[in-house]
Design brief:
Two copies of one chain form a homodimer.
Chain A (H helix, E strand, L loop, with lengths): L16 H20 L3 E2 L5 E3 H4 L15 E3 L5 E4 L4 H10 L8 E10 L11 E10 L4 H18 L6 E7 H10 L8 H12 L1 H4 L1 H8 L3 E2 L5 E2 L6 H11 L6 H9 L6 H19 L7 E3 L13 E7 L3 E2 L5 E2 L3 E7 L14 E7 H10 L12 E3 L7 H13 L4 E3 L6 H10 L4 E4 L2 H6 L1 E6 L1 H6 L3 H6 L3 E5 L3 H12 L1
Parallel strand pairs in A: 1-5, 7-10, 16-17, 16-18
Antiparallel strand pairs in A: 2-4, 3-4, 5-6, 6-15, 7-11, 8-9, 11-14, 12-13, 14-15, 18-19, 19-20
Helix pairs in contact in A: 1-4, 1-12, 4-11, 5-9, 5-11, 6-8, 8-9, 10-11
């Protein structure tokens, strides 16, 4: 019979104990911060109707690429969620009458993107979101920004090495409107302009200027069409997203423009100013939260405040080469998402952390504890006919809360030692025939433990193997474990 | 524009704080027990190649019902995992050279079944598995059985109200072989027989006897074909799975038969006997782990030890009607699963808990703590123009680790109180103009807190509203929270 080839589809990966532990610590920390801010947990399934996710294209018989989709028995299209925001909008619409508003929830879990997955790009990854639905107030946005900063610090990213950068889409929308790219009319050109601005960090101002006007050839010679603005129009747009001042107050002045500024732009600046005031009142205006007019956020559904959390210190990879890291999370106001279901307006604002991104950030910053965890105490099977005795020993250790296992393989003594070493067992417990007669057990401190000894003195004081009476086994192992921590 | 209808596909559900908290406690407890036994975490993605899951039918152009499947861009079929065992087999085969064997891991997460989902049946649910790969020894099985018992008790199921029931498929296989249903030859009839035996609990002995012989009409008049055994053959098979003695020793004697018993049956009994010895040595033979020859486990891939964890006390639902609960988990030995990938034999044994089943069991047993969690302290927005002051108050509370939030809605004072009450806030903090002048704040203990007072005396001692100087706010709230716990 032909054997199957064991492999994973591209863009998917397995995770071992070290990564699982690290992610679990991050998730637990984020949860604590979100709860401190009064958000409550909510969970939605991983599968939704495709139309609820807003990616269903009516003129295609299959939902478009980007999401994993499949048909239900009744021929309706289902999709794996690609973020945690669209499912929340569905939940809110479905339970609108019964939920307490403003509705403050957090959610975390896997999301899926059916995309080309290059190195470090995954088709399944974890997000951790918090959202406030039913509040149009900038106070809700400000709370999210401060919470984002708190998450970074609680997770171990030092103050000064990150920033929560905020902006307001109404400002840019107002300016784009004034150069003829109103929201509905020129959707395609507007999107081109937004995408161009979103690339400022990566491509620089000159390239963005080209993308706003007549288009641009990249280094590979590929042409990207432009938004077809005139040079003056492009200059006006550029002036807005380059309007970063020395502090929030100066940025606000630059963004405000004169009294002829379009209504939308003035509304955006007013909201941004209110957030800045709240941030100041809470003491987060020390560089933790800064107004940055270049923040756009790619997703089309944002309608007001937008923000991104970024590492701000120079980073290098293992070979010393500089690393462009991008954001670890972001969010903003999406007042239109719930109204896909309801005729009334339901304002909402949210924040999403990429958990794997945060893990990668910690790693780059050298803030990730990568010490492998200690293994269990291994009880050696010296004599196969006495395995019930060994089982009783393990049970006693476990009853005392000591992580331990009976060796369940078929190998001999040396291979069992090697196994225990590879499991990073703090010690093994051995009982041969003569020990059994004397009712004692041997406790053997393994290499891993010896390596942990810092000095030769310490090593000498800690005998690598010693015998204790059977009834003192638990105490002896407990003492050994305490010495190791 | 037409509005979308907010709804979930059948068999999927949302979860609120109470259920999330309960599941999170269960998951944490299972994790602790599995780790105590020396198992280490492993995570595999939710998507696998369909052929790795073993449900791909080559004569169909779509993987069969039962799994959610979709084609990748390269036309290969992908599926959502339907259990955590098949992905483990794929992982082990893919990493066989580098893993430490015996390989002891645990995994938990969502699995999916594309089935008709009735009430209480879900298409997405959570499993928590532990497996030992690379050990053919019954010690590995015994460890899993004891671990299953420990999980039940740590989760809050009292000793005596559950049992881990063990059996060995080789015994039944040996008997089925002796009545002409050998493993390969009569796959269809053998499966019919296995399914019949698996229904003993539900349908009773008479119905099973019919299903083993000429078939049976159910109450609705539908006919189920039988395994076409003769009456004597059926009686022999029945004698085996009814061979439960007063204790494990007696069951073993009944199962062993005479010296003419087929080799396979004798091997199965020997394995079962070894497990019984280990269980006894560890003290788990007090009814926690019992030999039960009626346990079969539906899945075809089991090859030796099988076991199930069941509630053993009479249960009733909310209306007092008796409830058939079935198992909360089970497992067994599947020595053939990894060999789908490899030519050598890789013995393996595993255990799977249905987390939602366990939650339902706790609920039925009245062991589920369903007290809703307390909400955050809510800082009331008395005067919208002073919101920055209120923000500063919230920030002080949070800095002291007190779960709290600024009211971010647009409602007036009364509606804010109602909001705080619905959030189950332990208290609200209010500062009006006169309080601000005096630099004090009002702390208002809400209904939820008043209800918690056990006596009138206690109620009188706890003023429902009191004022404190601004700089004593944190202490005062902390004291109030302590009184409530």
């Amino acid at each position: 019979m032909e054997k199957l080839n064991a492999r994973l589809p591209r863009g998917l990966s397995d995770r071992g104990p070290a990564e699982i532990d690290a992610i679990s610590r991050i998730v637990q920390t984020i949860r604590e911060v979100y709860e401190l801010y009064g958000f409550e947990p909510l969970e939605t399934p991983l599968i939704e109707y495709s139309d609820a996710l807003g990616k269903f294209l009516p003129d295609q018989d299959r939902p478009n690429a980007g999401v994993f989709s499949f048909q239900d028995e009744d021929k309706q299209w289902l999709s794996l969620r690609y973020d945690l925001t669209a499912p929340l909008a569905r939940f809110v619409a479905e339970n609108y009458e019964t939920i307490t508003k403003p509705f403050r929830t957090y959610r975390f879990g896997w999301v899926f993107r059916n995309e080309w997955a290059g190195p470090g790009r995954f088709r399944q990854f974890m997000q951790f979101d918090a959202d406030t639905v039913g509040s149009a107030s900038p106070t809700a946005d400000a709370e999210l920004c401060m919470m984002a900063a708190d998450v970074m610090e609680r997770i171990g990213v030092p103050r000064g090495s990150y920033a929560v950068k905020i902006n307001n889409r109404k400002i840019l929308d107002g300016v784009l409107e004034s150069v003829g790219l109103a929201r509905e009319d020129n959707a395609e050109r507007k999107l081109t302009a937004m995408r161009a601005i979103d690339k400022l960090d990566r491509l620089g101002a000159d390239a963005v200027r080209l993308l706003l006007t007549k288009g641009r050839f990249d280094e590979a010679g590929n042409f990207t069409a432009g938004a077809e603005l005139t040079d003056e129009q492009a200059a006006l747009v550029m002036s807005i997203f380059l309007a970063k001042g020395a502090d929030n107050e100066q940025s606000l002045t630059l963004l405000a423009g004169d009294e002829n500024a379009p209504e939308l732009r003035r509304a955006g600046v007013a909201e941004l100013r209110q957030i800045a005031e709240l941030v100041k009142a809470a003491g987060y205006d020390d560089g933790r939260i800064v107004i940055d007019p270049s923040v756009v956020r790619g997703l089309e559904y944002y309608t007001g405040t937008v923000f991104e959390v970024e590492l701000t210190i120079p980073l290098t990879d293992e070979s010393g080469a500089p690393v462009r890291f991008g954001s670890v999370g972001g969010g903003g106001r999406y007042d239109g998402l719930v109204s896909r279901y309801r005729s009334d307006n339901v304002p909402a604002t949210g924040f999403s952390i990429g958990v794997s991104r945060l893990l990668a950030a910690l790693k780059l910053l050298g803030k990730l504890d990568e010490t492998p965890r200690a293994g269990p105490v291994v009880v050696i099977v010296f004599d196969k006919s006495r395995v019930a005795d060994y089982q009783a020993i393990v049970t006693r250790l476990r009853s005392a809360g000591i992580r331990s296992e009976l060796y369940v393989g078929a190998a001999g003594l040396n291979a069992q030692m090697k196994y225990a070493d590879r499991r990073r067992a703090p010690c093994v417990v051995i009982q041969g025939p003569s020990e059994r007669e004397q009712r004692i057990v041997q406790i053997k401190d393994l290499a891993e433990g010896l390596k942990a000894a810092k000095t030769h003195e310490e090593w000498k004081q800690r005998p690598w193997q010693f015998a204790v009476p059977e009834d003192q086994l638990v105490d002896a192992v407990q003492q050994l474990l305490e010495r190791k921590t």
